[in-house]
Specification:
596 residues; alpha/beta; 2 domains; two-stranded antiparallel sheet; 26 helices; transmembrane; transmembrane helix
C-alpha cells in the first residue's frame, strides 16, 4: 500500500532506507552532525579513562580474557555467566594492543560508539536533526552507567542494533524497484544481518528475546526464500558459541550460561520490582550515592528517580510499538514505518534486563534504545496531530523532549554522571585513587581502600613466588556477595586458585560448591572487608556453607592487616606457624564508621 500523504521529509537519503552504499564526500551538514556527536562523546573521555572501576565486573573483563589466552575454558575452568565471544575477542585485542586498563577501556569505548552510531543509523530515516538528538540521548545513557568497562552487554547490543540496521536495509531494498542487482544487494544485507545477530548472541545469549522479536516480525513480512540468507548468516555468526559448547561440553555450558544466571544466581541478585520509593535497593548504588557528586539543579531524590525511571522504561517501550503499529496502518509498508516497528520491538525485547535488577545500570542498558527513540516517535505522532508543523520544528521539539525527560526523570545517572567525568577531563576535579603494580593500574574511589590495596599488593609481591595460587574473596566466605577480581589482574604471575574468580551469592557459597576444595589448593588468600556491609532485599543476606571459613581458620595464617582490617592477607600455614583465625566477617573500624 502506498502512502501519498507521506511528506518528502519522510524519504531522506539514509543507509537504513536502502540508499546506495558508495563513498561520497560528506557535506557540511553531515560533518557538523558527526562533529556534534563526536564532541559529546569526547568531552568526558579523559575522566572516563581514569574513573573508578568496579573491582569485580571490570576486573573480570581484565582477568577472564587473560585466562582464555592461557588456555582456560569458561564454564569449565572459571565461572562465566555470559557468552564466550566477548572474552575471545578481548583476548585477541590484548594481544594486539597490550594488556592494560587503558586498552580494556578503549575496547569498551568502541562498543559504546557501536551502540551510539547504530542508533544514529536507524533514526537517520527521520533526518539529521532527529538522528543527532537520538544519538546524543543514547550517549548520555551508555557512557554513564559503567563508564568504559568492556562488558559483553554493550558489545552484544551494538551488534544486535547493527543487525537490525542491515535487516531493515535489506527489506527496504527488496521493496524498491526489482532487478538482479537489487535482489543480490538485499540478499547480501540479510546475510550480514544474520551474521551480526549470531555474533550478538555469542556476546550475550539473553539478547535472544530482543533479536527474536525484531527479526522475527521482519522476516514474517518477507518471502520464505529470503529467510535462507538470514539463516546462513546466523549460522556463521554462532560458530563461536558452537565451538565453545564443543570445547566446554553441553552440560557445563548449559549450567554456566543458563542455569547459573537464570536459576541459581537470580535470588541473590534480583531487586524489588518496582524499585523502592524511599530507599535505594542496590548495594553498589547506595555506596555511589553516599557522597554524591556535585549537582545544584533542583531534582527529585535518587530513589524516586529509579522508581519513576522503571515505569517509564516499560511505558516508553510500549508507546514506540503502538506508534509504529499506527504508522504501519496509516502508510502501509512504507520504509520508515517498518524501521520504526523493528527498532521498537528490539527495544521492547530488552526490558527483561531491566526487570530482573532495576538499578541505574540495568535501566540505562535498556533505555539507551527506548529513550533514544523518543524524538522519532514524537515526529510520527506530530505528523498526524500537527500536520502544519514543519519537519525541522518537529525534529527540534522531539530532541528537546528527550533532553527534558532525562533532566526530570534521571538526571543523577545521566547529566550528573556525565558532568562529573567532564570536570575530571578538564582538570576541574581530581582523578580517583590509583592502585598499581608492575605497570598495571586500577582506580578506586575511596582513599582507605586504595591505600590498603597498595600496601597489600606490595607485601604479596615481596613474599609470593611465580606460579603460586591465589584466591580472592570477601572476608566472610559464607556470603560470597562480591569479589575484588582486580587483584588477580595485578598478579598475572600467580594462578587463580578457584573456579569462582567472580563470586556471587547462591553460587560460590552454596552447600557443596567447589569453593572449599579450591581454597584447599591456594597458597595465598586475600580477604576483603570492603563489602561486609552489603545489604540488599534479596537472598544475598543469607549465609551459605561455612566450610570455606573453617578451612581458612584451620589452614591459613594471617600475614597482613591493612587499614584496620579493610584488607587481609593470608598464606597457607607451614610447620611452626601459629594459626590465626580468619576474622570472618568482622568489619573494620573504618567500615563501621562509613556505615558498611
Amino acid at each position: 500500500m502506498s502512502a501519498p500523504n507521506v511528506p518528502a521529509s519522510a524519504k531522506p537519503r539514509a543507509f537504513v532506507l536502502g540508499d546506495d552504499l558508495r563513498w561520497r564526500v560528506p557535506g557540511r551538514i553531515d560533518l557538523t552532525v558527526l562533529a556534534i556527536i563526536a564532541a559529546v562523546i569526547a568531552l568526558p573521555l579523559r575522566g572516563l579513562y581514569a574513573s573508578t572501576g568496579s573491582t569485580m565486573e571490570e576486573g573480570f573483563m581484565l582477568v577472564f580474557p587473560e585466562r582464555v589466552a592461557a588456555g582456560d575454558v569458561p564454564n569449565v575452568d572459571f565461572l562465566h555467566l555470559y557468552g564466550p565471544a566477548s572474552l575471545g575477542v578481548l583476548a585477541r585485542w590484548y594481544e594486539l594492543f597490550g594488556h592494560s586498563l587503558a586498552s580494556e577501556r578503549t575496547f569498551g569505548l568502541l562498543q559504546h560508539i557501536g551502540v551510539i552510531f547504530a542508533v544514529y543509523a536507524l533514526t537517520r530515516a527521520w533526518g539529521r536533526i532527529a538522528a543527532t538528538s537520538c544519538a546524543v540521548a543514547c550517549t548520555l545513557l551508555v557512557l554513564t552507567p559503567i563508564g568504559l568497562s568492556a562488558l559483553g552487554w554493550e558489545g552484544g547490543v551494538a551488534l544486535g542494533l547493527w543487525s537490525i540496521v542491515f535487516a531493515v536495509r535489506s527489506h527496504n531494498i527488496a521493496q524498491q524497484q526489482h532487478g538482479h542487482e537489487r535482489a543480490s544487494s538485499a540478499r547480501r544485507n540479510i546475510v550480514v544481518a544474520g551474521l551480526l545477530a549470531g555474533l550478538a548472541l555469542c556476546f550475550r545469549p539473553d539478547l535472544v528475546i530482543a533479536l527474536g522479536l525484531a527479526h522475527g516480525w521482519l522476516l514474517l513480512r518477507r518471502r520464505r526464500r529470503q529467510w535462507r540468507g538470514f539463516a546462513v548468516g546466523i549460522g556463521l555468526g554462532i560458530i563461536p558459541m558452537v565451538a565453545h559448547i564443543i570445547r566446554a561440553g553441553i552440560v557445563p555450558s548449559i549450567r554456566g550460561m543458563v542455569l547459573d544466571p537464570v536459576v541459581y544466581l537470580r535470588p541473590g541478585r534480583e531487586l524489588p520490582r518496582p524499585p523502592s520509593w524511599s530507599v535505594i535497593d542496590g548495594a553498589l548504588q547506595a555506596v555511589a550515592e553516599g557522597p554524591p557528586p556535585w549537582w545544584r539543579l533542583p531534582a527529585i531524590s535518587a530513589s524516586h528517580q529509579l522508581f519513576i525511571w522503571f515505569f517509564l522504561m516499560i511505558i516508553v517501550a510500549v508507546i514506540h510499538v503502538v506508534v509504529a503499529f499506527f504508522a504501519l496502518r496509516r502508510v502501509g509498508n512504507h520504509a520508515r514505518a517498518v524501521t520504526m516497528m523493528v527498532a521498537a520491538l528490539f527495544g521492547l525485547g530488552l526490558i527483561p534486563q531491566g526487570l530482573q535488577r532495576p538499578d541505574s545500570t540495568h535501566l540505562a542498558w535498556v533505555t539507551c534504545v527506548g529513550f533514544a527513540l523518543l524524538p522519532v516517535s514524537f515526529i510520527e505522532v506530530s505528523q498526524w496531530r500537527l500536520p502544519r508543523l514543519g519537519a525541522r520544528p518537529r525534529a527540534l521539539i522531539g530532541g528537546a523532549l528527550v533532553a527534558l525527560l532525562l533532566l526530570v526523570v534521571c538526571p543523577f545517572f545521566t547529566y550528573r554522571a556525565y558532568l562529573l567525568q567532564a570536570r575530571v577531563a578538564v582538570g576541574n576535579k581530581p582523578v580517583p585513587f590509583e592502585v598499581q603494580h608492575n605497570g598495571r593500574q586500577f582506580w578506586m574511589g575511596e582513599y582507605h581502600a586504595a591505600k590498603a590495596s597498595n600496601a597489600l599488593i606490595a607485601d604479596l609481591a615481596a613474599m609470593s613466588s611465580p606460579g603460586q595460587r591465589l584466591l580472592v574473596g570477601p572476608a566472610d566466605l559464607s556470603r560470597t556477595i562480591y569479589s575484588d577480581v582486580m587483584f588477580y589482574y595485578m598478579f598475572p604471575e600467580l594462578t587463580p586458585a578457584t573456579y569462582f574468580i567472580e563470586m556471587d551469592p547462591g553460587l560460590a557459597d552454596q552447600e557443596g560448591s567447589r569453593l572449599a576444595s579450591d581454597l584447599q589448593s591456594a597458597d595465598w588468600v586475600i580477604l576483603s572487608n570492603l563489602w561486609t556491609g552489603w545489604k540488599e532485599p534479596n537472598a544475598s543476606s543469607k549465609h551459605g556453607s561455612e566450610v570455606p571459613n573453617q578451612i581458612m581458620a584451620d589452614h591459613f595464617c594471617r600475614v597482613g592487616t591493612y587499614e584496620n582490617g579493610l584488607m587481609l592477607l593470608y598464606r597457607r600455614c607451614t610447620t611452626g606457624d601459629g594459626v590465626n583465625p580468619a576474622d570472618v566477617g568482622e568489619p573494620s573500624a573504618h567500615q563501621r564508621e562509613a556505615g558498611g
